[in-house]
Amino acid sequence: MTRLLLVRHANTDANGKRLAGRSEGIALNEEGRVQAQWLAARLAVLPVSAIYSSPLQRAMETAEAIATLVGRDVEPREEFLEIEFGEWTGLDFNALSRDARFERFNRFRSSADVPGGESMLQVQARMIDGLSRVRARHRHDRVVVVSHGDLIRAAIAYYAGIPLDLMQRIEVSTGSLSEIELDDDHVRIVRINETDAGV
Predict the structure, then answer these.
(1) CA torsion angle for 95, 176, 126, 144 (degrees, to 10)?
(2) Which of 9, 61, 79, 148 is catalytic?
(3) Checking phi first, is residue 105 left (phi over 0); if not, alpha (psi -120 to 50) or beta?
(4) Domain coverage including residue 132
(5) Are the C-beta atoms of 79 and 127 separated by less than 8 Å?
(6) For residues 45 and 98, what is the distance between their CA atoms, to the nearest angstrom?
(7) Is 9 annotated as catalytic?
(8) For the chain, how many structural domains are there in total?
(9) What is residue 199's predicted lDDT score, i.e. its pLDDT?
């Protein structure tokens, strides 16, 4: 059985204010660094065989904090990269709220287009393909994967049999831990959105 520990990167100054997407140079803020240390301490007590991460800075900083205590290297993987948001990248949410295409995207994730970006179906397929490759390498291991909120929601939705149009009902906070167990015969979602309530 493979145990996938899905970690959403810790907090940044962009979270809740603008759609960072694949923008470069977005680092963890003070709250995010505290969250990353909590995650590291939480995971250091578990036998972790490998750590994979989105290559974006905020994810890598979170993964590296975990790696320091867990004693593993971080392997960046493109499959766990944030959604390509195209024309929306970097825009603040006030501006996006006036864009009917963005509203449609949030209501109909399974079919809405992202102008100049990738569809949610493409994102989900990319994430699941990446997790499947990780599982093939770690058939009996516990593995950390640091990624982004919508990618983790998409993975949970896939393994739970939930339509993409309902994935926004799944809460995945910054600095959170979710866990999925996979083997040849079954899937079990062990936890969703575990956080340090004190942060």
Answers:
(1) 150
(2) 9
(3) alpha
(4) 2-194
(5) yes
(6) 46
(7) yes
(8) 1
(9) 44
In this structure, is residue 199 part of a structural domain?
Answer: no
- Whether residue 48 is contained in a domain is answered as yes
Q: Can you tell me which residue has the tokens 């979602």?
A: 189
Helix (H, G, I), strand (E, B) or coil at 35: helix
Active site residue 30: no
Local structure of 32: helix, strand or coil: helix
Q: What's 182's domain CATH number?
A: 3.40.50.1240
pTM, two decimal places: 0.96
Strands (E), 10-129: 50-53, 74-76
Indicate the pairing of strand 177-182 with strand 142-147. unpaired
Tell me, rounded to whole angstroms, the distance of Cα 86 from its chain centroid.
19
Q: Are 154 and 168 in contact (CB under 8 A)?
A: no
Confidence at residue 179, expressed as pLDDT on a 0 to 100 scale = 98
Under DSSP, the state recorded for 147 is E
- Of 136, 149, 147, 142, nearest to 180 by C-alpha is 142
Residue type, 197: A
Structural domain includes residue 83: yes
Q: Which residue in the list 61, 79, 82, 148 is annotated as catalytic?
A: 82
Q: Which residues of the chain have pLDDT under 70?
A: 197-199
